Amino acid sequence: MSAHQFTEIRIPIDADNPAIMRDEGLCVKCGACRRVCESDIVVGRLYDLESTGDVPICIHCGQCANVCPVGSITERYDYGNVRKALNDPDKIVIFNTSPSVRAALGEAFGLEAGAFVEGKMVAALWELGADYVLDTNFAADLTIMEEASELVERIVGKTKPLPQFTSCCPSWIKFVETFYPNLLPHVSSAKSPIGMQGPTVKTYFAKYHGIDPRQIVNVAVTPCTAKKFEILRGEMDAASREADIPGMRDMDHVITTRELAKWLKEEGVDFRALQDGDYDQIMGAASGAGVIFGNTGGVMEAAARSAYYFLAGKNPGGEYLDLQAVRGMDGIRSATINIAGMPVRVAVVHGMDNARPVLEDVAAGKREYDFIEVMNCRGGCIGGGGQPKTEVPMSDDIRKARIAALYKKDGDMQLRFSHENLDIRAAYVRHYEKPLSPIAERLLHTSYYDRSKDLGPKGIVEKPLSDARMYRCTVCGYRHVGDLPGGFVCPLCSVPKDKFELL
Fold first, then answer.
1. Bridge partners of residue 133, in order along the sequence
2. What are the distances in angstroms from CA 62 to CA 174, 177, 258, 325, 348?
3. Which of 61, 387, 462, 465 has the fewest beta carbons under 10 Å from its own?
4. Are 67 and 33 in contact (CB under 8 A)?
């Protein structure tokens, strides 16, 4: 008998899940979490709980938290630990902000969807007492330098198999490790931007400022709940190995956009009244290519810009600054783009339900690509599991507003190429030497694991989608999965079930 309750209605969540948690007292057994995990994410219908030894399979994406109408499922809060570090005079707290946070944080304070609040976000972190505020967009540019260089090596030098899959999304990485480990040789070894930001701060940045890396408390501010899992991966201690400091992690804490908003409200920070703040130097500059990392298709577009330069020795034409072939909200988008006279077959996928047919076809040799971007969350990181719940469930209008904000910022910038970022160039001169150098391989690249044994003896078990009907409250919009029992009232606005419509 399972220790997890109501599994016929909702997804099971382990008590030690590092990314998400459930407050049993708030759960209304609506089934929304099960529906999203089975349909959009597909994980919930690909394994048997008895086969796994009653251990839930989770890729930590947090989409269940996004659709939970009553806040029963949330990210596992870590901002309390960051607050303690800020109050410790022996600690140096460094915040690192991801691209998509600045396109969504304002919504938690009543601003319109997609409001671009980078300056206020930075000012808010200074208000909390940060010692340094850095931009993970810098590491997005760094990721492009390494990932695009790897792609060129695969295409020209045939060093590894094609297609090359992107590696920025930790939910996607755990998904492929668990369900498609045979495709791991195709996944780029380049770490995610947060995976690169962590060791760069504790080696390059620490050395530049004369800081003992053991004093640093590295905090990632991100839209992604899965980053809470990613920073705990065993290999995310590259700075520890490089500096011979046992036990030191590259990134110490992750707080989501929602967490930051919650914390700021608890501290009484008047977010809307803040004057714009500035990032610190040497890891605060980023290109437009780094900015668009938060969008589905953004990593592909950024990589194409620099891959062109690496192959041709010059920047591409203007069409590469508005690469419509990889933009949009279609779940699967494919195109052939010309990179320095070489046709490169690309695909962009968001949502694991969309990824599965692509993965199956690649594994079977039915589709031939050179480069595939995969993101777990619809719309990319802008729809991450730790973003403000402006609407429940999140609409594509919200996603599109956030996407537009990042593309507009990219379009307004003079610096549009990762390889032209002067801070990136300086980091290679002073520290990393060149892309794919030995020190870059040690600090900026990683390896992956076959987790298929976690599925137990049955392996992948394809279960049918739940056929439970969905009802919507016509008063407040709350959605309920499953039949409405006698005496049912809306958990949000308390109207009776006759106010619900069948969808």
1. 95
2. 14, 18, 12, 29, 21
3. 462
4. yes
pLDDT computed for residue 473 by the predictor: 86
Nearest to 128 by CA among 179, 74, 82: 82
Query: Which residues participate in catalysis according to the annotation?
Result: 147, 150, 168, 188, 227, 230, 235, 381
Helix residue spans in 62-160 (DSSP H): 63-67, 79-86, 118-128, 136-152
Of 95, 62, 264, the closest CA to residue 171 belongs to 62
User: How far from 121 is each of 101, 190, 261, 359, 470, CA to CA, in Å?
Assistant: 8, 28, 10, 38, 37
Residue in the block written with tokens 């995976």: 195
Report the distance separating Cα 126 and Cα 136, nearest Å. 16
pTM of the model: 0.93
Instruction: Give start and end residues of each alpha helix (H) in 61-104.
Output: 63-67, 79-86
The interaxial angle of helices 193-200 and 136-152, nearest 10 deg, is 110
Amino acid at position 42, single letter: V
Q: Under the phi-then-psi rule, with left for phi > 0, alpha for psi from -120 to 50, and beta for the rest, what region is 249?
A: beta
Q: Walk along the chain (503 residues) in steps of 10 and give the mean pLDDT of each run.
A: 89 97 94 93 96 98 96 98 98 98 98 98 98 97 96 94 97 98 98 98 98 98 98 97 97 98 98 98 92 93 92 88 89 89 92 95 92 97 97 94 96 94 97 98 97 98 76 81 81 88 79
Q: How far apart are CA 105 and CA 272, in angstroms?
A: 11
Q: Are strands 371-375 and 342-350 parallel, antiparallel or unpaired?
A: parallel
What is the rounded CA–CA span in Å between residue 38 and residue 451?
20
HEC states along 21-50?
EECCCCCCCCCHHHHHHHCCCCHHHCCCCC
Task: Domains for the chain: give ranges and CATH numbers.
Answer: 79-444 (3.40.50.1780)
**The pair of three-digit structure tokens given for residue 254, joined into one six-digit string:** 């992750």
Rounded Cα distance between 422 and 439, Å, is: 20
Closest by CA position to 68, among listed 294, 271, 225, 174: 225
CB of 135 within 8 A of CB of 96? yes
